[in-house]
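quick one, 108 residues, struct below
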Amino acid sequence: MKISLCTGCAGGAGGEDGLAEPLRAALAQAQIKATITPIDCMSGCARPSTAAFRASGKTAYLFGDLTAADLPTLIAFAQLYAASPDGNFADARPLGALRSKALARIPG
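---
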């Protein structure tokens, strides 16, 4: 799984005070294999602090308006995403607040 975090906007998810390091540590603790890549701009400026989750052959997801409070839900999403064969979910309720923070779902 590849996770891209925006660094361009003030307070961006991948910025110096963003989610990159806490997310990396939480993924490691949950034993989820993922590569985190900071990206200068992901064009989510209307809803800054964005993260994209993608994996080969799976639907990709772009989330915006992320804060440190979303970290537990991002880990839960990463676990579900890793376990899903195609990146799709029959029931989105386990995604909690991330459902309202989804900017895009891109077919794999």
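The longest helix spans residues 71-83.
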